[in-house]
Structure formats: structure tokens, C-alpha cells
Specification:
Elements: H1 2-6, H2 9-22, H3 39-42, H4 53-61, H5 65-71, H6 75-109
Helix pairs in contact: 2-6, 4-5, 4-6
Length: 110
């Protein structure tokens, strides 16, 4: 349990985001308005360079590669970047956990 406290919040954020995207119910909104966190869309702009990346990643996680490419071409690289960041965070968390354990063991032996 102590190891979980040492892991960064960013790791939990990315894992939660990918799990939620993996279970997302994807359906075509067409021209209908839908909720979005995109600041450009919320300001009224009709085009945004990042719109569709979330749906593209969700399609990738559900195995729909052609649909992913239709939503945004950067979905595949984005998923690879996020996955590599998760791996880096896990490795650094495990490494810091091992260093702390070694220091504790050294203090007890001296």
C-alpha cells in the first residue's frame, strides 16, 4: 500500500483516461451538439487541430483501426506516447521504491 502512495498522480490519470476511453460507447454524433472539453469548440470555432484524438484512441483501444484513422491521424502516435509515459512512470516509481527500501535496510544494519 505504501508503494501506491509513492506513485505519481499522473500515472493514475493516464491509466484512468485510457480505461475510460477503452470502455467508451462510441456513436456518431453527426451534426448534433455534444459535450466537449475542447476550449476552441467551446469558444465557437468549428475547427480544432486536436478534435477527434480522444475518439481515435477509443477506436484504437476497441480494435477499430480504420475508424480511428477517420477521426484523427494522430490517434496511433498519441496512444504510443501515452503508453510510453505510463511505462516510464511505473519504472520510476518502482525504482524509487527500491531505493527507499535499500536505504531503510542499510539504516537497520548499521
Amino acid at each position: 500500500m505504501n508503494m501506491l502512495k509513492r506513485l505519481p498522480f499522473e500515472l493514475f490519470f493516464w491509466i484512468t483516461a485510457l480505461v475510460l476511453l477503452g470502455f467508451a460507447d462510441l456513436h456518431d454524433h453527426g451534426e448534433a451538439a455534444h459535450f466537449t472539453l475542447c476550449p476552441l469548440a467551446n469558444m465557437g470555432f468549428s475547427w480544432c487541430p486536436g478534435c477527434g484524438i480522444g475518439r481515435a484512441i477509443a477506436h484504437l483501444l476497441q480494435g477499430e483501426f480504420s475508424a480511428s484513422l477517420e477521426h484523427h491521424w494522430f490517434g496511433i502516435p498519441a496512444l504510443l506516447i501515452i503508453s510510453s509515459r505510463i511505462i516510464i512512470l511505473v519504472r520510476s516509481g518502482l525504482r524509487s521504491h527500491n531505493v527507499i527500501n535499500m536505504k531503510y535496510k542499510e539504516e537497520r544494519y548499521v
